[in-house]
Amino acid sequence: MSDVELRSRAAAVGPECGRASALGAGTRRVRPGTVLALAFAAFLLVATVAPSLLQTAAPNAIAPRDAFSPPSLAHWFGTDESGRDVYSRVVQGTGASLAIGASATAIGLAIGLILGAVAALGGSVLDFVVGRVNEVLFAFPGILLALLVIVLWGPGPVTATIAVGLSTAPGYARIIRGELLSIRDSGFVEAARVLGHGPFRIFARHVLPNALVPVAALATLGIGQAVVWASSLSYLGLGAQPPAAEWGAMLAAGRTYITTAWWLTVFPGLMIVLTTLATTVLGRAITARDGRRR
Amino acid sequence: MTGTTQAAPAPTDAPVADVLAIEGLRVTFGDGGAPVEAVRGIDLRVGRGEVVALVGESGSGKSVTARAALGLAGAGARVQAERFELDGSDVRRATPRQWRRLRGAKAGLVLQDALVSLDPLRPIGREIGDALRLHLGLRPAAARARVLGLLELVGMPHPALTIDRRSGELSGGMRQRALIASALALDPPLVIADEPTTALDVGVQVRVLGLLAEAAARGAGVLLISHDLAVVSRIADRVVVLADGVVVEAGPTGEVLASPRHPRTRELIAAVPTDVPRGVPLLGAPATAGPSQPAAAPAVRPPAPTGAPPVVEARGLVKAFTVGGSTTVAVDDVDLRLERGRTLGLVGESGSGKTTVARLLLALTRPDAGTVRLDGDAWSELPERARRPQRRRIGAIWQDPFGSFDPRWGVERLLRDAIAAGGGAPGSAAVADLLDQVHLSPDLAARHPLDLSGGQRQRVAIARALAARPDVLICDEPVSALDVTVQARVLDLLDELQREHGLALLVISHDLGVVRHMSDELAVMRHGRILEQGPAERVFDAPEHEYTAALIRDSPRLAVGPDARRDPADR
Amino acid sequence: MPASRSRRRLAALAASSIAAVALAALAGCTAADPSTSSGAPTEGGTLVYATGDAEPSCLDPHVGGNYPQALIAGQYLESLVSLDESREVVPWLATGWTVSDDGLTWEFTLRDDVSFTDGTPFDAAAVKANIEHLQDPATQSSTGYLAVGKIASVEVVSDTVARLHLTAPDSALLESFAQPWTAIQSPAGIARGMDANCQAPIGTGPFVVEEWVAQDHVSLVRNDDYHGGPADRGRDDAAYLDGIEWRFIPDSASRYAALQAGEVDIIDNAQPDTLAQADEGGALVEIDAPRPGASNRLELNAGQAPFDDERVREAFIRAVDVNDGIDSLFFGTAERSYSALSSVEPLAYADESLFGTDLDAANALLDEAGWTERDADGIRSKDGVPLVLRFPVSTNQSIPAEQSLFEQVQATAKEAGFDVRIEPVDLSSWYGALFANEYELVSAPYTKIGPDVLRILYHSDSITPAPSGYFANLAQLSDPQLDALLTEAASESEPAARAALYEQAQQIILGGFHALPLYDQQNHFLHSAGLQGVRAMPTVSTPWFADAWLAG
Amino acid sequence: MARASRPLRTFALRLGGAVFVLWAVATLTFFAIHLVPGDPAQAILGGPGSQASQEALDRVRADYGLDQPLLAQYAAMLGRLVTGDLGTSYSLKTPVAAVIGGQLVGTLTLALLALVVAWALAIGLALWSTAPGRTARAVSGAVELTAAALPHFWLATVLIAVFSTGLGWLPPVANGAASGLVLPVITLAVPLAGFLAQLMREHLLDALEQPFTVSALARGETGAGIRLRHALRHAAIPAVHLSGWAVGYLISGAVVVETIFARPGLGRTLLRATELRDVPVVMGVVLVVAVVYVVLTVVTDVVAGVADPRLRRGGSTA
């Protein structure tokens, strides 16, 4: 019997008992994937806080003579064009990359939150205005935004981060607005008003927390995306500054040798993907818990 | 209204061949390690032209049984039966492919809410036509013609227009008709209707039942699933009462109603509020009730000296909504008085403006005209800032308590929050006490509403409302989402609490039976206006307005005599 | 494939007959070039050329005047003179020339049998028009403008004789006229105005600009009436090819892939790693033609601290180690240079001893110079000022391998306590940083024929920026003695004396540790074995297709 | 009559909104670019490193009104824009309209094809992710995320290495033929497909939990039928709303893709113009992109509205 029928059981017996819908959906149970994700997250944490614990070599020590050596026991991920140990650089790059990813996402979220909140809670006029502002941001090709920011303040991780943050903001704004609207009109906000709670308390205790849960899930996706974005800037030669070992930059630099030395791009790329995977799985875990409740 | 019925009504007294024959049906959900047995060996028979009502509370297994009859119990379910025949063919070993051929052709399904049971993105014509397409491979044009016929059959107004509408664009009644039409598309020998009338306005209820009765009259076997004995008793030839996955009682409707043998059956009968006079508890002592000590809430206030202003008084309330250019008047010149310790019932069909009135009284929306006064003082005119400290005095419970709980909060936190709002000390003692007042065990405090049953949730909602020590409780459709038995207990609880705390209640419902049972005063509302208002008994016994009369006539009551199921058909 | 060795052999052969050299050139400059053994040339076919250089914003090399323009202009424009493989000046549009004793008057005799592809005859008037066009500020010429800077006026003696009056002797004049940036165009074409002329300049060359599809390609078609060419050309007739599709493929990997896929017949700016591959593969043929003029080198900005102190400059040069890097990053396709000039320049002076790596010496020098304090990372500082070297890198100008090499410079310099800050930026920001004098290190290639490039790069006059902010002396080397030498050399027509002067000049530049030479300006072409008869012009190493053909 | 005026009002709002957006985009770009270091006059005179003489600079400044105060220049620019004049490119000396006109088609073809392909891929992925069994969902989920996490430049290089250099099936760079479009389109489409699929699968799963799937099953509908005829529509609508954003995303991607595959197009024009500080061209490209975006959002809103009448009541603003 197809799984449609399995899942539809939720709806089938839904009206009768509230918890069936929770049982019904397969997405909504803690999965082994979550455990793996946590493990990887732990690795990232260590790599950020104390990279030296994980490194097998000095990340920036050059050794031109053994450049381009493929993965081996000596160099797990091989060496790059300057003979630096790719594995150690990948570990080294974790901090920088996550910093870019996280802070870019943070910037995007912050702006998005402000715009979204104003739009959702500020009345129809503000909503319209913010809507346009959002469209303006949307209408700007993200890359141009990035280029402008970079030529304005010079290249480097910071500007790259700002650029990426800015260009992701409208997306967040739109989603947050939607969330806030649905919460604003929800029964529990009404109930809180009836109990005589003030608007700020309601916003702080009910609206915001509930809006943030799905947003958190978004953010997890955003981090990986931001790193990828930054790497594209590095490809255009505007990303992190050498010799900083940042995944995006490594990806961009290694690209030249993709046919001769695959390991230069594959491993940093893998880290980006795995990070996105891990964060997303964790994000899903968060929302799954929340999702049961809506 | 039913228009052209083509097939000559099959004589009901003719020997009936079973379209559904089930013996020893067991359904177990192997969720995780501990398998849950939802249905534990029931026998069920539906003959041609026969309406069989499968009645029971939530979790009694009735819906699972119905699904099983369609092979939709779910992949997680294990279905066993000694005998399982659909229109004569054994389906115990049926493959998914075979099931698909049976569904729709041999058995049609009518679900509760057509708004979600029909794909909101597809015109109903297509939805109905699907069955034809799937089983007869009809070309769109041919299918359309057939669908139009079906819409005629179910008495859909202007079929030619409605056929291209989506369910969201239709009224509840029309939707339900469409849904039934899709179930009848291939004129299946068996029609299974799962709560087809729950939460529908009584008028619509009657018409829907009428359609099912007609289907039976045309020779189909109808399996009608409901928690409300009163509703099904209208048209059911036989009643099968389920409890905890077993049949506790079965027999001709008349007999079962006249002389119920099993306590669960009696409970179901007793739970029907219609015609039970005000103040008489429906189910005697609440089943879940513990020893109810005197409440910690303030003692009953003395009934207000006559002449004292009503707790809540609304004068000339008017509220209109403008949705993109078009304006609709939701509430039109409404006057209401809520006296301390008494209950005002407000009844009307969906869309009559009941809820808007509630929101106006709660000062959640500003009236365009008119005022609401609280204890004679200004209320609706107050600036929100000034009103806020007073708000706790008017509590509210809604049809969907779940939606009124912050999804992130557990029972305890919900109640503490409310107690604090009422100026009380939010200790766990207070929480336990509140739960006790609504006859819930204190250890529910630790749970999340998600893990509570519908009835328990509504009790928690009531507890939260009480926590703020209100003078007035506004109940908007407090029970319409609940099983009758649960509904009965909640109603009894409200009564009890009113007596304890001298609350003034406003009970809003589309179900006149409920309102009448609860109310001292009664107001009938339609199109935003109060049609008539007065002492409950008077309004109910001698309705001044024809509409009121219709409401009274349609409100579900236990039918007496086997011919009961005829009457809806001739309207 | 040690190109340099073959070049030296060439220098030796130089005396022998021009045509022979031309052939030998092909033999020498190209790895195992089949064309030497191959059969008769075949007519027809369109060659697809893929360039990695930026797309010019104007096809007229008079305007602005950069290498991308030179590359393509060489196909439809001709110069007055050219160079042969031994870098001797040989006739082209001018059949001969004489110079007065005071070196202030030059007389050029012109070919009388040439006309521009618009029918305008090529004559002295045309030469006059072109030189004036170069000198007109409205033309916005930078390279050609400098080349003809000393010409006061042009006198049309007859149709075939043009007399040039100079303000000062110019020993580099002929070399200047050999450059594509001074190539001769139809006066009628120039008269059309800049916009039209930029779209399709009209020359006398073997091909004619047919159309220019922005960002995609320029189509060139054969000039059927073409005859002659530079004196060292083996033939006299029009090109074999029907035309050339000149494509712009900025991404090196794609460019190489396109060549492998046979989408294009020849690419320029071939990357070291792909050269190495091609070498193994054998299906592709390489032409290694280093650009003349300056070598690729790091300029040390002596205009401000810390490099205003020679000891610090020497310390830096002693500290960095690039040899291994060059080997590994360039896969042996580039040879370390120890000269400020390209190795193709006969007057290039190299002194390897100045550039030996010696970390101890470096440290000693820095201590001596007062950069004694060192922080946790080992970065030195003096009076609290850290030893920071800002190094803006133009991502448009430096290939990945070079940028990686800079990272290695960064890493090795750090050991001595230098904090090298590599700043990858786009071209505009790069110039911006230079103009604002916000750099201590910079790599700025400069292509020009002849040692006179030294005057442009190291004469103190070149420190004072043009109104636009541009200045060429990025080392900000200001040395009266050097200035004198360069000025004198520029007007010294006697070869031996001239050579001596330039050698002294280069000794000052290198000896003062003002620049760290890396390698010649890399200029590698890769082409399919099917393409034959290609040569790189000895002038500025642009490809010459008039004698190329597509075999089979 | 209130009913009659409504579409008019909404149209007026839309139009007003669109104009506002264009104005804002123009303004932002104008001032942003003028904040950027680099002298426009120099950009005009041969770009970076030009040795233009003082008089030349002065003349150009006068010609292009660069000696005017910034606000005056801004006003002049707006004036030109209103008359539909995008000005003249600094570096190419040709009308911006012509410069862009030449590139627009190429980029739009690329972007729209990529959008279509992305949609196809996304639908496939999303459907796959709802297939029976945990593994399908897990694997497809991983595939979606990986796809979404692929940088264009990396994907492009790999595709070239495999399909051009390796297998020799497809040309590595644009050539008039359609085959030259394949790799660029795929490069652009895959990461986008990753996004869309993630979005759709969530809604797909939700839709499959709706009661109407039960009714459909009860009619004898097949699992596939449920997915294609019912669930997919529900999943598609939110994704359709994204299309506007998607085009912006694709054009950003086009910068890289067009560079790698040597395709003429807006992306490269934009990149080059920014590097050369060619203000008019940057402005022109941005405006064109904005127009495309605005038009597309309107279209998608209409499409979504047709697909789901519920959206027409109380339309969304942001």
Automatic annotation (TrEMBL), chain A:
It holds the Pfam family BPD_transp_1. Belongs to the binding-protein-dependent transport system permease family. One of its GO terms (biological process) is transmembrane transport. Residues 94-283 form the ABC transmembrane type-1 domain. Keywords: Cell membrane, Membrane, Transmembrane, Transmembrane helix, Transport. The chain crosses the membrane at residues 35-54, 98-121, 133-153, 159-176, 211-230, 261-286. CDD domains: TM_PBP2. This is ABC transporter permease subunit. The keyword Ligase does not apply. SUPFAM superfamilies: MetI-like. It is a multi-pass membrane protein. It is found in: Cell membrane. GO terms for cellular component: plasma membrane.
Automatic annotation (TrEMBL), chain B:
Residues 22-269, 312-552 form the ABC transporter domain. Keywords: ATP-binding, Nucleotide-binding, Transport. One of its GO terms (molecular function) is ATP hydrolysis activity. One of its GO terms (biological process) is transmembrane transport. Residues 286-306 are annotated as: Disordered. SUPFAM superfamilies: P-loop containing nucleoside triphosphate hydrolases (SSF52540). InterPro entries: AAA+_ATPase, ABC_transp_ATP-bind, ABC_transporter-like_ATP-bd, ABC_transporter-like_CS, Oligopep_ABC_C, P-loop_NTPase. The keyword Secreted does not apply. Belongs to the ABC transporter superfamily. This is ATP-binding cassette domain-containing protein.
Automatic annotation (TrEMBL), chain C:
GO terms for molecular function: peptide transmembrane transporter activity. Residues 1-27 form the signal peptide. It holds the Pfam family SBP_bac_5. Keywords: Signal, Transport. It is found in: Cell membrane. The keyword Transport applies. InterPro entries: Peptide/Ni-bd (IPR030678), SBP_5 (IPR039424), SBP_5_CS (IPR023765), SBP_5_dom (IPR000914). Coiled coil: none annotated. It is a lipid-anchor. Residues 88-459 form the Solute-binding protein family domain. SUPFAM superfamilies: Periplasmic binding protein-like II. The keyword Endoplasmic reticulum does not apply. GO terms for cellular component: ATP-binding cassette (ABC) transporter complex; periplasmic space. GO terms for biological process: peptide transport. Its main location: membrane. Belongs to the bacterial solute-binding protein 5 family. PANTHER family: PERIPLASMIC BINDING COMPONENT OF ABC TRANSPORTER (PTHR30290), PERIPLASMIC OLIGOPEPTIDE-BINDING PROTEIN-RELATED (PTHR30290:SF10). This is ABC transporter substrate-binding protein. It comes from Agromyces agglutinans. The lineage of its organism: Bacteria, Bacillati, Actinomycetota, Actinomycetes, Micrococcales.
From TrEMBL, chain D:
It is a multi-pass membrane protein. GO terms for cellular component: plasma membrane. InterPro entries: BPD_transp_1_N, MetI-like, MetI-like_sf. Keywords: Cell membrane, Membrane, Transmembrane, Transmembrane helix, Transport. The chain crosses the membrane at residues 12-36, 104-128, 149-170, 176-197, 236-261, 281-304. GO terms for molecular function: dipeptide transmembrane transporter activity. Its main location: membrane. PROSITE patterns: ABC_TM1. It is found in: Cell membrane. Residues 104-304 form the ABC transmembrane type-1 domain. PANTHER family: DIPEPTIDE TRANSPORT SYSTEM PERMEASE PROTEIN DPPB-RELATED (PTHR43163:SF6). Belongs to the binding-protein-dependent transport system permease family. This is ABC transporter permease subunit.
